[in-house]
Design a protein that fits this description.
The structure is a single chain. The protein is mostly helical. Among the domains are: 6-74 and 190-238, Rossmann fold, CATH 3.40.50.620; 99-180, Glutamyl-tRNA Synthetase, domain 3 (Alpha-Beta Complex); 375-478, Arc Repressor Mutant, subunit A, CATH 1.10.10. It contains 19 helices and 11 strands. The chain has a 3-stranded antiparallel β-sheet. A two-stranded parallel ribbon has the order 1-2. A two-stranded antiparallel sheet has the order 5-6. Helix 15 packs antiparallel against helix 16 (415-429) and helix 16 (415-429) crosses helix 18 (453-460). It starts with 5 loop residues before the first strand and ends with a helix. The mean pLDDT is 95. Bound molecules: glutamic acid. Glutamic acid (GLU) binds next to helix 5. Glutamic acid binds at residues 10-12, 44, 188, 192, 206.
Amino acid sequence: MNIKIRTRFAPSPTGYIHLGGIRTALFGWLLAKSLNGHFILRIEDTDQNREVKGSIEHIILSLNSLGLNYDEGPDLGGQYGPYIQSQRLSIYHQWAQKLVDQGLAYSDPYSEEEVEEFRLLAKSQKRPFLYREHRPQNLSGWDKGKALRFKSDPKKYTWKDLVMGELNSGEEAIDDFILIKADGFPTYNFAHIIDDHLMEISHIIRGQEFIASTPKYLNLYEALKINPPKMVTVPPILGPDGKKKLSKRDNAKDILEYLKEGYLKESLINFISSLGWNDGSTQEIYTIEQIIQKFKIEDIQKSPARFDEQKLIWINGHFIRNLKIDDLYEISSNYLPKEAKDFDSNYQKSVLRLIQDRLKYLSEIPSLSSYFFKRPNIDYTLIKNNKVLSIINVDTLIDLLNKTVQELNKSDFSLDDLTAKLNNLLILTNQKPVVLFGLIRIAITQSPFSPGLFDTIYVLRKTETIQRINDFIDYLKNN
Ligand code: GLU
């Protein structure tokens, strides 16, 4: 039987979405895209105390920025809406009422303090706390100012998780959990079951923290006579040490932060998809299209994934290196130093072409390119800190630079001729490249590193190159 694939991302708006959340969203999106299904965004805001203002906008912006477009959602609508749980309270109340009418839900007669006492008692007796052991004899209907609990039917369960395989639980996993809180809001445990059913969700993709509660959900599905969706549990993401769960301390950034730093969305999707999915090959670089084509639930791994930012940096460098120069130019406009606007697009592109191979993310553009757009301040420490140049006397340095200017003046500044003239200069001066070219590099870039020296001079052009060398000669003479 062909089922209609409908997956959902169901975040709670309790802060910015962390990488694990994005990974869950991505896997749901990939499953839907790969099987021609629908991907739905549902906001689970039933815990009003934990809500953080602006989170919904942040979630939507994050998904949109990565291109994880959903087919239905709070801002798009759809035939199964509304897609914000706080706007669906009457729906949960109707379903809760059905359970009350069948004697399968009841008002909790105890105060929170009393329930806490039961919990402490169980703890002191070293046995697990089960609310149902305190279930009142005579179940009242639904007293709206009180929490409404599910009257569970303890039993053993065996179920299939499409990633974890067969899972089992005993009766102790079943309890009379709260369906609707005293404030009238449903719990996650209740609301998601109703919503997944009404929204015809085919696969629930979520983290391992929900496995322990799954028997309770199965018990409720049975009471409601609902067929559960397929369960897809994604593995945890560990920090770089591969031991502890990824946490704030591991410096995994907010996805919008990564985008701002100039990580491409292709790289982020490639990297995040690798956190728990592997098609069985050793391939590391995939386009988004390739991932969609290859993505299969069977290839989601059970074992934890490890967050390794170096891998992300490597992937990003790869995607940047492979960009056509016009595309790199287009996405670089916000990153080029402000002085770049005084230069034409051809010049800007030749600079980008030179640094393209070394760029790890776009926000490195200013530090790698500024001297192409602005004459750099002279920094004599570059000579002092240079092993070979620091031991040469200043007059010799000046002499070498003067000879360089003479050679460059003779050049027609084609790349071939520049190369020939500068190589010839090595012979004329009887110097090694580390000395001569190291010195010229510092004179024109005021930086210890640059792209190939000949290319750098070629892009800077004759007047500017010679001017910079002459300025440096003046500096050496006067200081
Ligand atoms: N609202 C839940 C959370 O943010 C989602 C769990 C689920 O995907 O069902 O943790």
